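Hi R.,

Here's the chain you asked about this morning:
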Amino acid sequence: MLDIKIIRENPELVKKNIEIRGCKEKIELVEKILEIDKKRREIKKEVDRLKHEKNIITDKIAKLEENFRKEEIKKVKLLTENIEKLEKEFNVLTKDFKEIMLKIPNIVDESVPIGKENVEIKRFGSKPKFNFKPKSHLEILKDFLDAERGAKVAGKGFFYLLNDLVLLDLSLIRYAIDKLTKKGYHLVIPPYMLKREAYEGATDISTFEEQLYKIENEDLYLIATAEHPIAAMFMNETFLAEKLPLKFVGFSPCFRKEVGAHGKYTKGLFRMHQFHKVEQFVFCLPEQSWNIFEEVQRNAEELYEDLGLHYRVVNIASYDLGDMAAKKYDIEIWMADDEFRESGSNSNCTDYQARRLNIKYREKEGQAPKNFVHTINSTAIATSRTMIAIIEQYQQEDGSVKVPYALKPYINKDFLFRRE
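And here is the predicted structure, written out as tokens:
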């Protein structure tokens, strides 16, 4: 969430920021939060005054003789009732305050393109040259991806991955982990479920909730990405500045309801209810975050480049950023139908996510926390979409797929999906 001081001191900046994100309906929240904030501060000031008055009278009572205490005790009782009444009002306002603050989006970085059009900033490699008509990954995976039986036991959007497709999935996971742990990233498998409090801190659950699987009769949700439980890992904790940046590479399955979303490409492995992902996540000092944002982007690009895949990077426009990110890059893979489609994202959330989760840092042990950390999250590899790129870009005329050189240490084959 934003620092309330920003909203108090520059409400027009916050309103303009909401406008350039394309969510004008949220502009009215700025005036609402200012009104609630003013009332909360007025009540707090009055409660502090009444408590001070109560303390004075209480001290006075202790010094009075029994005959003179009765009237003063009545005053204390009345003050106590007034304080309790005001504190109840304050608690209601605080609940409303938090709910609205969680809905006001992060400040967009000045380098983000304004509007709806993403801007391409890099392209790597070139289209594969085929002397035959290339097939889609679904055609190639006819005997290795069982959608029919997946739907039978779990519903549309779930699949059985078989034989060589499993090997490819697992090899990509290990490949990404090995590359990032060598760079000093700490390996973590997070919980696959989160409580609502943690999820509300990690992301805008009001808009993300339609994608989440809720555990019936439990305060638990299946995670949509490892980013969320890693972000919440240090909820309500304070780092020593010298320990930052703290870098993680997390692996998890991801569970999402987004299959079949209107207007979105949904074929095969591209949009699934369940898939694997290796995620980069960094907690850092504010002055470190933009350099680290570029660092994790370079890490992700190296993974694709070492795999020899044709991709491009786009700077995401303000309308498509979501509430959390101040800036976001997407890596988009080239597919056999000659389209680029998203395979991963990299976001700098500045202090917005950490403020929601109450994650701070202090300069020295024993000192008061100085400020909130910054958080950066980036997809290293979402295996399902990376498998599409490999299958469609490395396909052979006989329907087999050449194994990229970078995956040879993990797959003891030169070709996958060969029919005997």
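One quick note: Residues 4-101 form a domain with the Helix Hairpins fold (CATH 1.10.287.40).

Cheers,
M.
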